């Protein structure tokens, strides 16, 4: 189950890339900017701004779950099940209702990836699997990486590494670059904000480093969670001293994904303002450079 294939990307690995976004994640990060990626199943998104007041096609298609108010807004009265989503998938003329998630097999995905091979060759680009967590679909991930590798396409993965190691291992021979999140090294804090285990992530990072894989550490900086000097220093120390990586990216928190929670009718539990702390970012850069890392600050 995927939710997007983005071509001509320049932010998800070197060169021009095709990014395949897989649905399903093992974490519940409070600040997640792609909440539509968490579930493995198709989901219904509703944008009230596009809804036509006099239209009732969706009510006719799924009357047991959809009610329309006098003002023309939709109310979802019950749990949206797979059968409802199937009935609603192509019903809305204005796309106020859209379905996130599409089943594609290996060949369908690779057909899209192959279209841009000349761009990969000229820019040293390739394919990146993202999500969600790509390794939540370990067989498909390994098949995509293996096929791409055999066709001479550079491979990268954006991953939180919060999966059993045997989910990752089949892909190891075919992944050229791991863009790996390291959100925190304190297990208790990590658990409170992500519902996961920092120990699992760090152990998988150790195994990747021991396997000699190319790793770029990515650190989303979230106020109240890890946007402080002590947390940043601990992350940098682990990256430099234990993993011996060369590159680290700091990603200051932004709120560009907030509206997606509205579309999904889900609460948003992260800060409502972006991180604006030049002094802290300066510390992060200088400390990481002092530890011998190449630093990238991404807006």
Task: Provide the descriptors you would attach to this structure in a database record.
12 strands; 299 residues; TIM Barrel
Largest sheet: 8 strands, mixed
Helix-strand topology string: EEEHEEHEHHEHEHEHHEHEHHE
Annotation, overall tally of beta strands: 12
Q: Give the name of the CATH architecture of the largest domain.
A: Alpha-Beta Barrel
Class of the largest domain, according to the CATH hierarchy? Alpha Beta
Word description of this protein:
Its cofactor is [4Fe-4S] cluster. This is Glycyl-radical enzyme activating protein. Belongs to the organic radical-activating enzymes family. GO terms for molecular function: 4 iron, 4 sulfur cluster binding; metal ion binding; oxidoreductase activity. InterPro entries: Aldolase_TIM, BssD/PflA/YjjW, Organic_radical-activating, Organic_radical_activase, Radical_activat_CS, rSAM, rSAM_sf. The chain is an alpha/beta fold. The protein has two domains: 2-39 and 103-297, Aldolase class I (TIM Barrel); 43-100, Alpha-Beta Plaits (2-Layer Sandwich), CATH 3.30.70.20. The chain is 33% helix and 20% strand. The protein has eleven helices and twelve strands. Strands 1-2-7-8-9-10-11-12 form an eight-stranded mixed β-sheet. Strands 3-6 form a two-stranded antiparallel ribbon. Strand 10 (215-221), helix 9 (229-243) and strand 11 form a beta-alpha-beta unit. Helix 9 (229-243) runs parallel beside helix 11. 36% of the residues are buried. The model has no long low-confidence stretch (mean pLDDT 93).
């Amino acid at each position: 189950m995927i939710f997007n294939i983005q071509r001509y990307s320049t932010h998800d690995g070197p060169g021009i890339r095709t990014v395949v976004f897989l649905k399903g994640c093992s974490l519940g990060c409070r600040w997640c900017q792609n909440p539509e990626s968490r579930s493995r199943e198709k989901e219904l998104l509703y944008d009230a701004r596009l809804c036509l007041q006099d239209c009732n096609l969706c009510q006719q298609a799924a009357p047991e779950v959809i009610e329309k108010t006098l003002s023309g807004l939709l109310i979802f009265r019950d749990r949206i099940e797979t059968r409802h989503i199937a009935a609603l998938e192509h019903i809305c003329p204005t796309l106020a209702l859209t379905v996130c998630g599409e089943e594609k097999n290996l060949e369908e995905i690779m057909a899209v990836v192959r279209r841009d091979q000349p761009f990969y060759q000229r820019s040293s680009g390739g394919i990146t699997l993202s999500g969600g967590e790509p390794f939540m679909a370990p067989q498909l991930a390994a098949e995509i990486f293996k096929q791409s590798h055999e066709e001479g396409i550079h491979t990268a993965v954006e991953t939180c590494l919060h999966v059993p190691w045997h989910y990752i291992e089949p892909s190891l021979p075919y992944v050229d670059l791991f863009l790996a999140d390291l959100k925190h090294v304190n297990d208790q804090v990590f658990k409170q904000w992500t519902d996961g285990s920092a120990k699992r992530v760090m152990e998988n990072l150790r195994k990747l480093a021991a396997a000699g894989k190319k790793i770029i550490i990515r650190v989303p900086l979230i106020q109240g969670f890890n946007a402080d000097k002590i947390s940043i220093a601990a992350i940098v120390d682990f990256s430099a001293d234990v993993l011996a990586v060369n590159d680290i990216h700091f990603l200051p928190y932004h709120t560009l994904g907030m509206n997606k929670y509205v579309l999904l009718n889900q609460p948003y539990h992260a800060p409502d303002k972006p991180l604006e702390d030049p002094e802290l970012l300066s510390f992060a850069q200088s400390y990481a450079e002092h530890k011998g890392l190449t630093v990238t600050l991404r807006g």
